[in-house]
Amino acid sequence: MSSVFARKGARLAAGLVVAALAVTGCGSTDDGADGEKITLTVATFSDFGYEPLIKEFQATHPNITVKTRVTEFDQHHKQLATRLGAGAGTADLEAVEEGYMPQFRQSKDKFYNLADYGAKDLASQWLPWKWQQSLADNGNFVMGLGTDMGGLALCYRSDLFKAAGLPTSRDEVSALWTSWDDYFGVGTRFAASGTKAKWFDGVGNIYTAMLNQIPFGYFDTTDAYVGDTNANVKSAFDKVAAAAANPGMSAKLDPFSQQWNVGFKQGTFATLPCPSWMLGLIKDGSGPENAGKWDIAKIPGGGGNWGGSFLTVPKQGKHPKEAYELAKFLTSPESEAKIFQNVGSLPSQPETLKNPAVLGFKNEYFTNAPVGEIYAKSGESLQPNYRGTRDADVRPVFGRALARVEQGKQSAADAWAQAVSEAAKALGK
Amino acid sequence: MRGRFDRHLTPYLFVAPFFAVFAVFGAYPLLMTLWMSLHDWHLINGAGDWTGLANYTELFSDPDFWNALGNTLSLFVISTVPQLILALFLAALLNTKLRGRTFWRAGVLIPNVVSVVAVALVFAQVFGRDFGIVNWLLGLAGVDPIDWPADVWSSHLAIALIVTWRWTGYNALIYLAAMQAVPNDLYESARLDGASNWRAFWTVTVPMIRPTILFTTVVSTIGGLQLFAEPLLFESKGASTGTGGSDRQYQTITMYLYEKGFTLFDAGYAATIAWVLFLVVALIALVNFALVRRAVASR
Q1: Which residue of A has its CA nearest to B270?
Q2: How far apart are CA A110 and CA A117, in angstroms?
Q3: Residue B130 covered by a domain
Q4: pLDDT at A10
Q5: Mutation site, B237, B257, B259, B279, interface A, largest A CB count within 10 A
Q6: What is the CB-side half-sphere exposure of residue A222 using CA atoms within 13 A?
Q7: SS3 A33
Q8: Structural domain of residue B177, as residue ranges?
Q9: How far B102 CA lies from chain A's nearest CA (Å)?
Q10: Nearest residue on chain B to A255, judged by CA atoms?
Q11: pLDDT digits over A11-62, tens only?
Q12: Which of A80, A333, A379, A410 could serve as A151's disulfide partner, Cβ 3.0–4.6 Å?
């Protein structure tokens, strides 16, 4: 029986030890006196487009070998957490996504303060809000250097729009809406046209996009919980819930699920909010047979940011100076411009957003949409969104409430009431 | 003198590796988890304040814990009971003079060696709401498509099916090994006494493999109560928080542990769940042991 528990316990306490044992080889173990050969590891989730840049870096730093480690999104952040807790196994550079920043900011002591290596001199390189997101301890602590961001746009299927008698060109489509009410109004027209496809993929993405357009959501900028009283949150919730209850509107798909991917391939929905990093997912899901059917229009409700990451330097690394140099190189305006052209991650720096190579970039798959111009515009005008320290405790609670409405299990009012009490319980501890 | 020393020490040396490994991977995590459960413990930042039994008090008044316990027991019953009964008959079948015996015997183990991630992917497609095979078949019979993960009964049924599919063959092979050790003369005398195959199965086979049935019951209980991978992978990838659906309808105890410890970084509370689960497993395994021993003995 105890072996049973051992397995359980292992997962909790020493599973971390096991993980640590398995990966100790990955960190940099060799000593790095000047000129001596050292190895740096960069851990990211999904393709950050670093391979060609790393080759460049190694050419100018012959004593440094850079290795990469790529894991799936959730896995990456959970592994980082357990490795930080276990005290071994982190890479020299670890990517942390915006949504996870509040959680890791609570453990800033496990990271090097990049201000000690001169990061503050780089501050003007980023959009001000992106720089703010990288700070802790009232701006005294620089957690990481910003990589990309996720300015919002709206992707739509022009073939389905045509079938429903709606305009198809991106300018005409953008002119269809300013507010989300307009957007849902067009959706009602779309649904009434008798088409089999639904208006949007599911409540998850729409609601996330709406929350990212307001200055703060569940926590105000003093970090006090306002999820139950913030009128902006309630209004977004009610609008999405009302749309979800309308049978023609939602394809009822969980974002990023397998069925969501099938939905792309089968064309079961016509629109979804798409930050620039989403374009790759849409293309992969829809496949070559749907090339030229997607296009990109303006997002209703104004600019907003969804996603984007930071490169952090965990204290377990033995070469913080070199790691910082690498992070600085990978996040430089020149590098960000190259990354945008290679993998489409939107630069978070004003200079790069004005770069002609970025502005002139078009995406063939999306009907040759001028993605450089679209996202650069949305990136410059966007209003950042504040996430509270305990955002991760309450955000999923409200997401699940909308899923219950979408599944027809609860009315909007009941789902909201349950979410409010669950959130209070989650924070009560 | 030296010989006596050897005789005293050597046996201990021989068993020492087990105890050394057990101390590192068994006893240490066990006690460490207990220690963690008595603290306010952050996954990354480590020990906070000593809280004594506060985590336990909170857990016992936590409706989400009782919900997870209920789900776990429900999934355990509807997956383990049919699984073991099915395995028993499957083993009896494999124990006969079947054509291509080795092929069938190896075949039943295949579901068990397939990666659980692959299994979950395939079953997610099978139970897909819009384009799944199950819903398509139901549609032929005029039944409306079912959103399998959305409700308690449908999600439990689907997950139990995955578990049963994965583990029936494994248990069947264990039963088969035990059945092969049953002396043939017992069957011969049973046949001389005019017993049918069915009768021989119940009066010879089952009592003779009783220890094995006990063993599989206990092991399946342990496995069933720790059910984790199948329901977690049943969650869609975008929401792999361990919550088990929009209303925690298929969240098991280990998933709740995962949610608290690895999604919300509350390692102290997760350790508490681990310890309570340990006690629940021990208790149920004991009850099971007693029940099955009596039930099989009375045959």
Answers
A1: A12
A2: 16
A3: yes
A4: 39
A5: B237
A6: 2
A7: coil
A8: 56-297
A9: 32
A10: B238
A11: 444 333 333 334 333 444 444 445 689 999 999 998 899 999 999 999 999 9
A12: A379
Name the burial class of residue B50, with classes exposed (0-12), middle (13-18) and buried (19+) by CB atoms within 10 angstroms of its CB.
exposed
Closest by Cβ to A407, choosing from B24, B147, B264: B147
- Do the Cβ atoms of A245 and A412 come closer than 8 Å? yes
The ranges of chain A annotated as CATH 3.40.190.10 are 26-149+307-346, 154-305+363-428
Quickly tell me which residue has 């977004």 as its tokens: A236
- In angstroms, the CA B235 to CA B249 distance is 11
Please write down the HEC assignment for all residues of chain B: CHHHHHHHHHHHHHHHHHHHHHHHHHHHHHHHHHHHHCEEEECCCEEEEECCCHHHHHHHCCHHHHHHHHHHHHHHHHHHHHHHHHHHHHHHHHCCCCCCHHHHHHHCCHHHHCCHHHHHHHHHHHCCCCCCHHHHHHHHCCCCCCCHHHCHHHHHHHHHHHHHHHHHHHHHHHHHHHHHCCCHHHHHHHHHCCCCHHHHHHHHHHHHCHHHHHHHHHHHHHHHHCCCHHHHHHCCHHHCCCCCCCCCCCCCHHHHHHHHHHHCCEHHHHHHHHHHHHHHHHHHHHHHHHHHHHHHHCC
Q: Domain of B136: which CATH number? A: 1.10.3720.10
Domain count, chain B: 1
- Amino acid in position A381: S
Residue B36 lies in a domain: no
> Nearest chain B Cα to A263, which residue?
B130
CA distance B150 to A74: 22
Contacts A260 to B, Cβ<8 Å:
236, 238
Q: Which option is the CATH number for A154-305+363-428: 3.40.190.10, 3.40.50.300, 3.40.50.1100, 2.40.100.10?
A: 3.40.190.10
| CATH C-level class of A26-149+307-346 | alpha beta
Residue B19 within a domain: no
Minimum distance, in Å, between the CA of residue A396 and any CA atom of chain B = 9
At A34 the pLDDT is: 56
Contact residues, B window 256-295, toward A, CB-based 8 Å cutoff: 257, 261-267, 269-271, 274, 277-278, 281-282, 285
CB-based contact A8 B263, cutoff 8 Å? no
Interface with chain A: mutation pick from B148, B262, B287, highest number of A CBs within 10 Å: B262
Indicate the residue of A2, A110, A266 with minimum beta-carbon distance to B44.
A110
Interfacial B residues in 148-187 facing A (CB < 8 Å) = 150-151
C-alpha span between A375 and A333 (Å, rounded) = 16
Amino acid (one-letter) located at A155: C
| C-beta neighbour count of A224 within 10 angstroms | 8
Question: Model's pTM, two decimal places?
Answer: 0.87
Q: Which residues of A touch B226 (CB under 8 A)?
A: 4, 7-8
Can you give the C-alpha Rg of chain A in angstroms?
22
Q: Which of A5, A15, A404 faces B246 most closely, judged by CB atoms? A: A404
B34 in any annotated domain? no
Q: How far apart are CA B175 and CA B219, in angstroms?
A: 13
Q: Which two tokens stand for residue A388?
A: 């509270």
Chain A CB contacts of B222 under 8 Å are 1, 4
- Answer yes or no: is the ipTM higher than 0.90: no
The yes-or-no verdict on residue A203 having pLDDT over 70 is: yes
